[in-house]
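Lab notebook page, bench 4
Experiment: in silico fold of construct C2
Operator: M.H.
Input chain length: 112 residues
Purpose: comparison with the prior construct
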Amino acid sequence: MMKRFLIIAVLLTPFFVSCDKDDESSEEIPAWLQVEIDEVMIISSVNSCEVCTVTISEYNGVKYYDFYCGHWSCRYCYFFDQNGNRPEWETGDWNAYEAGKKQLAVVPACRE
């Protein structure tokens, strides 16, 4: 009887353990960045909501936000650290970031 209970408990455990919310939907755009995004969307002549995303990454313990629209020609035009500051990096710093970053999520720039 005890053996049967243990088998059932082991089989049902995955259903009762909470899921880790480390997926794309758990990442949110900070309010200060949403203000930037809203301003860009207002002046845009194209429907940017279809091609704009925010890539959230982590590098050296700091979270970074890269707001980018597919029709832009510039890279990292709207790139900020977790405090809303633009990193003042040299080329080598950018290369190190690219090599060492951990991408956390890519979320739509527009709110529904």
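Observations: Strands lie at 52-59, 62-69, 78-81, 102-108. The chain has three helices and four strands.
Next step: discuss at group meeting.
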